[in-house]
Each structure stands twice: as C-alpha cells, then as structure tokens.
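Example record

The entry below shows one chain as it appears in the dataset: sequence first, then structure tokens.
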Amino acid sequence: MSRTVIKTDRAPGAVGPYSQAILADGWLWCSGQIPLDPATGQMVDGEIGEQTRQVLLNLKGLLEAGGAGLDDVVKVNVYLVDMDDFDAVNRVYGEFFKEDPPARACVDVCRLPKGARVEMDAVARIGAVRVGDEAS
C-alpha cells in the first residue's frame, strides 16, 4: 500500500496528533475540518452559513493539495451541534456540490473542537473513471 501524508497551508494545521489528509492507493481521506481560517488559525465569526463556507473551503484546499477536486469526493460526513442549522448548511453545501453530489451523512453531536458549530470530513477517489467517461 502506498501512503502519503498531505500537508497544506490552504487548510488549518492539525490541532492534535493526526494528519490533515492521507493519500492511500488513490483514495484521499481528509480529516474533519472546522471553520478555522488557515491564515490566522482563528474561528471564523458569523452565522452558520459563513462557518460552513469556511469548512468547505478548508476541505477544498486539502483536496487540491492531494491532487483531487470537489468532483472526486465520494463521501462527506457532516457534524452539527444544532440540527436547526441543517437547512442553512445545505444551502452553502449545495454551492460547492452543484451536480451529482457525493454520498453524505449528517449527524447531531453534543460538542465539536474549539466550540465549532459544524465540522465535515471527506473521502475522495483520485483518477477514477466516471460512468459515461469510458472510451468506446
């Protein structure tokens, strides 16, 4: 198995003993992202929509550092402190995953690191042939 640690300044550094992402045999496993600004390391102020946008920008930065893009994502896990934020999170999420979105789970949690209201992690497949893309 090939295994590469992915590090980038386009997403916050790890706040514990884990890697930002791991590339293993064509699969990119992105650690959970909370709404930290990678430039400052500070939590983004504002409503849940602004925080969700930062989380997704952080994931996008990790994906690109690992050689993937949003279209390569096959699964996202969403963690919310308040399920009343579900609709607002979905609106911003839909801006990033416009067509053929990945599989997803969304769960209500008691707490998240650093007092965040939303966290997401993702798994992407790099270089996979998509249905309809095969050569004839």
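Notes for this example: Strands lie at 3-6, 21-24, 27-33, 73-80, 103-108, 118-125. Residues 3-125 form a domain with the 60s Ribosomal Protein L30; Chain: A; fold (CATH 3.30.1330.40).
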